[in-house]
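for the writeup, i need someone to sanity check this before i put it in the appendix. the sequnce is what the collaborator sent (i think, or maybe the updated version? ugh). structure was predicted straight from it, no edits. if anything looks off just tell me and ill rerun, i have time this weekend
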Amino acid sequence: MPRAVPTLRLTLAEARRHWLRAQRLDTAAPFGAGAAATRAAVEHLGYVQIDTINVIERSHHHILWSRIPDYSRADLAQALGTDKSVFEYWAHALAYIPTRDLRFYLADMKRHREHPNPWFGAVSPTDLRRLIARVRREGALSIRDIDDDVLVDKDHPWASRKPSKRALESAFYAGLLTVSARAGMVKTYELMDRHFGWPPRPRPPGEARTLDHLLDRSLRAQGFVSLESICYMAAPRKKAMAALVEARLRRRRLVPVEIEGLAKPAHWTTPEAAVAAPEPTEIVHLLSPFDPLVIQRKRFHLVFGHDHRFEAYVPKEKRVLGYFALPVLIGDRVAAAIDVKADRAARALLIQQWTWLDGPAEGDKARIEEALGRFEAFQFGA
């Protein structure tokens, strides 16, 4: 009879430190500097979410700056368009993803080709063929390069009067085109095979290998995982993922984790990660509400005790933290939430609302103000 796998028992404080270590938020420059750091960060985290809201610096740049102090927007442009070490696609949301992981998304692309989302119902196979032929003939195109569309009325606030925009997006999700460059939120699309120098295309792995990838990615970036955190926004995979977790537990490749005060959900980690977490530092992070530490709101609340609210779409009179509040991390505690806005004309960061959550302890305000100054310099820098 196999020996029982020993359980790792963590206090909440220890759980926070394990997660911060996995997210690389417990040291000042965990990925080094320069363009190579951007690739390393995206590969470690598994994906970096893109968001269209432009109240302050967009979330993908903000997330990378939080882990790369000298991060430059040009580094991400280089990774996408020159080094081709990252690509854009849908993770749980639109995101930058390591190109080394692209094969795990090929099945999703095939599914889109065979069963397009109803949003793309107006895009006919003929439309796609003409668009692909045009890109093949003329080279990479953005929607701004297409000036011969017959304009139509918008059928949704996020739609465009140019039908070609929806065709470009459909070809993107189908894996026929990929984003080869981005200027703000304007994307340039190129043939995927030409951008990456194919053929041959990578072979898509089977579902078993994809599940292994999703579990390994979660363990690397989360430290300890639950079924909910592994399958975030991918509930149909929970049953198969639970079977994979059980198989790894039997082979002693995972160990159970019990977190003080949390009866559910069940958590697991690797034997290699089941070591004492380092003591917290007093590093201050102004986190994006789309940061991978924050985006899984239930997990963030369980471990850090802060139920973060993203209130950009909440009526003003019902907001608690503000339109675009940033959780402020000092060491391993969420000390405050600060609603900020960029005044681009004045090149200044405006504090709309400051809400203390765990504090202020002595020195907290000064440390946060120093971090706000660094963020302002990044916001309006090159």
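The radius of gyration is 22 Å. The chain has a mean pLDDT of 94.
thx in advance!!
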